[in-house]
Amino acid sequence: MHNKTIAQLAAGLRAGEYSSQELTRAILDRIARLDGRLNSFITVSDELALEQARLADQRLAAGEAGPLTGIPVAQKDIFCSDGVLTTCGSRMLENFVAPYDATVVERFNAAGAVLAGKTNMDEFAMGSSNETSYYDPVRNPWNTDTVPGGSSGGSAAAVAARLVPGSTGTDTGGSIRQPAALCGITGLKPTYGRVSRYGMIAFASSLDQAGPLARSAEDAAILLGAMAGFDERDSTSIEHPVPDYTATLANDLKGLKVGLPREYFSVGLDSEVGKAVEAAIDEYKRIGVEMVDISLPNTHLAVPAYYVVAPAECSSNLSRFDGVRFGHRCDNPKDLEDLYKRSRGEGFGPEVKRRIMIGTYALSAGYYDAYYLKAQKVRRLISDDFRQAFEQVDVIMGPTSPSVAFKLGERTDDPITMYLSDIYTIAVNLAGLPGMSIPAGFANQLPVGLQIIGNYFDEARLLNVAHQFQQVTDYHQQIPVGFE
Amino acid sequence: MQWETVIGLEIHTQLATRSKIFSGASTAYGAAPNTQACAVDLGLPGVLPVLNGEVVNMAIKFGLAINAEVAPLSVFARKNYFYPDLPKGYQISQYELPIVGKGEVTIELDDGSSKVIGVTRAHLEEDAGKSLHEDFHGMTGIDLNRAGTPLLEIVSEPDMCSAQEAVAYMKKIHSLVRYLEISDGNMQEGSFRCDANVSVRPKGQQKLGTRTELKNINSFRFVERAIEFEVERQIDLLEDGGKVVQETRLYDPAKGETRSMRSKEEAMDYRYFPDPDLLPVEITTEHIERIRATLPELPDAKRTRFVSAYGLSDDDAGFLTASRDVAAYYEQVVAEAGDARLAANWVRGELAGYLNRENTEINDSPVSAAMLAGLIKRIQDNTISGKIAKDVFEGMWQGEGDADAIIESKGLRQITDSGALEALVDEVIANNPEQVEQFRAGKDKVLGFFVGQIMKATHGKANPGQINALLRKKLSD
Fold first, then answer.
1. Can you list the domains of chain B with their CATH numbers?
2. Interface of A with B in 64-83 (CB under 8 A)
3. Does residue A271 lie within any of the structural domains?
4. Using 50, 70 and 90 to split pLDDT, how confident is the model at A415?
5. CB-CB neighbors (< 8 A) of A206 in chain B
6. Disulfide: which of A68, A161, A235, B425 matches A483 by Cβ 3.0-4.6 Å?
């Protein structure tokens, strides 16, 4: 059962081949048996899952099932889920049982999905390797000496290892696409405002966006359909109709114009990764897609602008973790200052502290114009690059990450190299565009991701482009050894 | 040396919405601690603010009332600082782009002159919670009921040069927000409070002196006293060769003095930046016009109308229009009783006196406008004298019924039977030959003596005008 896609599982459930309770038990058993090798879950919600499966079976029996009814999924531990521990990968929230559901969780519940558990992640989603998690790193199922990418590393590893058929992630600078690439699965970061941020613990509010991780574009389409939509509790969510993302998957790609930004194929790109991406592009040409060379001239400014904007917002967003109302509080504070300093000093890990300090500095009196304001102007330039590109082409393609999965510990002492893992993904967040990563082959026995970037609200087209590739390739069907 | 005082005020007025500025929790005052704080107010992980549209409409009303530009685009910003009663570690406020721009109000001074005070800006923000230090030994309690309550912060130009002007300005703004029904203006509950920026400089000097900021003053009297104390303190300091330090000071009403809270060096860097959780507030001209159409008649216009329509003095009109409720009460009295000046005298005199003494709002007055009108009618038709009317008013205040009932039950009807009065006059004249002589010798004042005698005999129920006339007639016979 674990090798089946969401679409296949839903069909099986409806046909009565197995019940949601049977499926859920199988999934929970598999997690219990195999996750010791990966550490992809922080919390496995057995009891809740079985209860939800029981209710899903009732819905299935009553003929009221939707495409996700009875399907076990994992939520990144950044989404608040009522009555379930929600840690955000941090010691700060080691004891935080959320008293409410995030909109994303609420929507999955309404669809009848089963919450298998909460996945491991970089602390407060700050990281590209899952090594900043307080709950120990996640390992990549393709090679457990390597990282799964981050920050949605637990979600990506769990899906790649067939522990769950689908999961959610969040993407602030590449945190869905990069781990999807490194783990050989399909991940989609929607347009900013497409999915509600309510109940999703904020890292950088103007960049954060939730999306699905799955083993195929079709499954990602099903998951996104459940997640997307306007939410009056999130002022930045946008009222825009949600199409049936599965309806257009089969559309022919003949005549589609794809832009290849030359900046994405230059220095810093691992040559083996480059070859795999070129091969994927050739595959697209064979199915009638037209490739166009384009330029996104301000690409080099994306990482520096991001590392001003994201830390600035996070320095403010993380102020609420002060030991006063919830989360970690130090023992025997001697006064208020001590309460703040020790609670935060003990509760946050080094990467989170680094970003809080960068952000605090960037927003300080006298530096605001030089850093934050300038970074916002750069954002505009980057958006303009994309706007011009989309006047010529329908989608943009390139590598998701400059390299395949790297070894655990290899980059932890070098934040700059770590930050450059997201060099191709960050600009998409700064512009608020949708982007995907799909399996595009292997380099050194490790998966390579192809990134597909679309215009605003063009998720259906991205999924269509991805799905057509998956009709003529089988990279997405490869199974890591030991997780068959 | 001659000194000149420069004062600017920042007034925080709580907007009278039912729910909070960024959440659906109630804003009602006085609930048990933390019972009116939802997930958003508590700043739980993952929650997001959603702007209450009513708050924007209220700010627009204020902007229109002070003739200010309402910004077509304004932006909420985060003011970052740590404090236990500030749940998110930042306050959502407005910084570079406030909703209301430059405007002005006119204040009336005691000498009858008026002065225009500039309003620099007014912006929307959320209130913080409350720290409770008394009830918890060695600890501090946090009540977040107030967290997220909408505030409009109204910042004036440094246009005031005395404590009295500052109070007049504060009263004017207070009157305006109550007229507009955007705030209850309740100062005890903290719905209307101010910070005063105070500096002094030698008379004639252009450059402003170093200022201090007096924090969180919540009564007109305290504002006056705090500023007076602070001005004197600064002048003493400078005259002794000292220097004023730029700092935040707290007014202690018990001791009647201000004391240092924190200096400029300790001043915080709030690291303002636009709140990425909220969209910029866009306001169309059409929307502004729709709001303008709902504005009530404002105090200045009403005052002018009261002078022209009712023939009142500017001073009386000012008193009667300072509060919308008082003006409405007055207009109802006039509508029913007719005599605008008599009505003004009664509202401003007897009624205001009672309200003040008993600390009662006009809307809670036991003497309604209709009852006061009923009383005035009895004065007009000579049923009672003005003097007796005061007794009747007291009866009405005590809940003894309306004017007619009291006049009837107490037998206060004026003696207008001229036969009976004539007999009394004759009797008084006959009994006081000495005074009659004096009067006839030209001592006109003695007339008062005769009037007094008759009022005494009738227990005040005689009509003084009628007695006067009768006496003059009889005495000159």
1. 3-289 (no CATH), 299-410 (no CATH), 418-476 (1.10.10.410)
2. 79-80
3. no
4. confident
5. 276
6. A161
List Cβ neighbours of B73 (8 Å cut-off, separation of 6 or more).
B97, B280, B281, B282, B283
> Domain boundary at A378, A405, A430, which?
A378
End-to-end CA distance of chain A: 11
Q: Which residues of A are catalytic?
A: 76, 151, 175
Q: pLDDT at residue B112 above 90?
A: no
Q: Does B457 touch chain A (CB under 8 A)?
A: no
Task: Give the ipTM.
Answer: 0.96
Q: What is the pLDDT of residue A430?
A: 98
d(CA A315, CA A202): 11
Interface test with B, best of A316, A338, A376 (most B CBs within 10 A): A316
Chain A contact for B273 (CB, 8 A cutoff):
yes
CB within 8 Å: B46 and A326: no
Q: Which domain holds residue A350?
A: 300-378
Q: Which of A357, A378, A399 is the last residue of a domain?
A: A378
Query: Do A215 and A317 lie in a common domain?
Result: no
Contact B474, B451 (CB under 8 A): no
Q: Give the pLDDT of residue B453.
A: 84
The CATH number of whichever domain residue A51 belongs to comes to: 3.90.1300.10
pLDDT per residue as tens digits for the range B53-78: 999 999 999 999 999 999 999 999 99
Tell me if B101 sits within 8 A of B121, measured CB to CB. yes
Interface mutation target, options B47, B81, B91, chain A, most CBs of A under 10 Å: B47
What sign does the CA torsion over A140, A146, A150, A154 have? positive
Q: Could you tell me whether strands A290-294 and A257-261 are parallel, antiparallel, or unpaired per DSSP bridges?
A: parallel
Structure tokens at B338: 């007719």
| Residue A172, in any domain of the structure | yes
Q: Does A320 touch chain B (CB under 8 A)?
A: yes
Whether A177 is covered by a domain: the verdict is: yes
The C-alpha angle A306, A129, A199, rounded to 5 degrees, equals: 65
A86 in the same domain as A22: yes
B77 closest CA partner among B279, B268, B272, B280 = B272
Contact across the interface for A98 and B42, Cβ inside 8 Å: no
| A347 shares its domain with A463 | no
Task: For residues A340 and A209, state if they share a domain.
Answer: no
Do A233 and A345 have their domain in common?
A: no
Provide, as residue numbers in chain B, all residues whose Cβ is less than 8 Å from the Cβ of A98.
44-46
A234 touches chain B (CB under 8 A): yes
Confidence check: pLDDT of A267 > 80 = no
> Do A369 and A461 belong to one domain?
no
What is the maximum alpha-carbon separation in chain B? 98
Q: What percent of chain A has pLDDT over 90?
A: 96
Can you give the pTM of this predicted structure? Answer: 0.91
Q: Does A364 touch chain B (CB under 8 A)?
A: yes
Domain count, chain A: 2
A322 touches chain B (CB under 8 A): yes
Interface test with B, best of A363, A373, A374 (most B CBs within 10 A): A363
- Does A63 fall in a domain? yes
Nearest to A198 among B46, B51, B272 (CB): B46
